[in-house]
Design goal:
- The chain is 80% helix and 0% strand.
- By secondary structure, it is mainly α.
- The N and C termini lie far apart (78 Å).
């Protein structure tokens, strides 16, 4: 089939290697459903509004410890394990990595259960503890169509969905081109490629923690929501533009000579430079995403009513997050099919224009959303002040 329909080889391979495709899809769902949705929904439920700015930054710091640890586990399983299983190191790497995933899954379930039984029953820590034993009303879970309706009927959620989709599209367009350079750099060495990605995760975690502790938390505390939220799209737009200009420099006479002189001075090849430049740009993008984008995104939900806070978050995070990454993948797969090639570098120039357009849309959406956020925050503060005055009057 690949020989008969070369333009659709990517789609054909999805079916041909269906088990790997299913594994990848489930891995993607784990990140969006478990981390982006369930954890932050749980945090929004138990964290008081007055505590949000203090704790949300710390959640990011603590969460990124996992990136450091997992990165080193991946690196060991990809390179260190070769000394113990030289006959087929890659097979045993996969075995050890998947065993670690299963163990961590069970540990997560135990901790979640322990928190419910020992922490959320104390009114000192959780406002809902007093009514925890009351019969709970069965909550309706929104389906796909209902989720879309929820997003469409709320300006805040609609704009927030645009932000999340814009992040997914832009980072996907950059990452695919970067990983193509990384694939050329390692030339079929699966262990080396995986070890590099492990170190990439480790450095992402380290830099995110440092940024959150010394910069991110202060940015959230001192700046307005708009100023804190605009940093992420600006950084991704600037970094992505730099990376695309570098990999397309041979086609741009204005910067071709400048790029070649830099490579000559550094004594490196274009592939090596693109690999490490792309890694640095993606790491910085992830750092500001985890440190600023995620906390500012969660702050949008805080002043909303309970229904929008729960159903809206489920709709925005899952649909918006997946639509963003799927959108970037759809653009690239469509371009590859139209051009009849499997070389993603051949569509880099078109991907750049899509990237830039979506990033600019992201910037404008942040501005429009900031108006609604500031209005909701002011309204929430006024309600809290009125409640305090009523209590003092009684």
């Amino acid at each position: 089939l690949n020989n008969q329909y070369p333009k659709f080889s990517g789609f054909i391979n999805i079916y041909a290697y269906w088990s790997y495709s299913a594994f990848y899809v489930l891995s993607e769902i784990w990140g969006s459903a478990m981390v982006a949705l369930m954890f932050w929904q749980f945090a929004n439920e138990i964290v008081r509004f007055s505590e949000a700015k203090r704790f949300y930054g710390l959640f990011v710091v603590i969460g990124n410890v996992s990136l450091i640890l997992s990165g080193q586990v991946v690196r060991f399983c990809s390179t260190g394990i070769r000394a113990y299983f030289p006959e087929d190191p890659w097979k045993w790497s996969v075995y050890f990595l998947m065993s670690t995933v299963v163990v961590m899954g069970f540990l997560t379930m135990y901790i979640y259960r322990w928190v419910h039984k020992n922490v959320l029953v104390d009114p000192k820590y959780y406002d809902g503890a007093k009514v925890a034993k009351d019969p709970k009303k069965k909550k309706s879970k929104p389906g796909l169509i209902d989720s879309v309706k929820i997003i469409m009927h709320s300006k805040e959620l609609g704009l927030l969905a645009v932000l999340i989709m814009a992040y997914g599209v832009t980072i996907n367009l950059v990452e695919v081109q970067w990983k193509e350079q990384l694939k050329f750099y390692y030339a079929g060495d699966k262990g080396g490629y995986n070890a590099f990605m492990g170190n990439y995760s480790t450095w992402s975690g380290i830099l995110t923690i440092l940024f959150s502790l010394f910069i991110g938390s202060n940015v959230l505390r001192l700046l307005s929501w708009f100023k804190a939220a605009i940093i992420t799209p600006f950084v991704i737009l600037a970094g992505g533009t730099l990376f695309f200009c570098f990999i397309l420099s041979n086609d741009i006479d204005l910067i071709k000579g400048f790029t070649q002189s830099i490579l000559s001075a550094m004594g490196t090849t274009p592939v090596t430079a693109a690999t490490f430049l792309g890694a640095g740009i993606v790491i910085v993008s992830k750092v500001v995403k985890y440190s600023l984008f995620d906390p500012t995104k969660e702050m949008v939900y805080m002043p909303l009513d309970d229904e929008l806070k729960t159903k809206g978050k489920a709709a925005v995070d899952v649909i918006g997050g997946r639509a963003g990454k799927a959108g970037g993948a759809f653009v690239q797969s469509t371009l590859l099919a139209i051009m009849g090639t499997t070389n993603v570098l051949s569509i880099a120039h078109i991907c750049f224009f899509v990237f830039a357009g979506v990033a600019v849309l992201w910037l404008f959406s942040v501005r429009f959303l900031s108006v609604k956020v500031e209005e909701n925050i002011a309204k929430r503060k006024a309600e809290q002040l009125q409640q305090q005055q009523n209590k003092s009057g009684v």
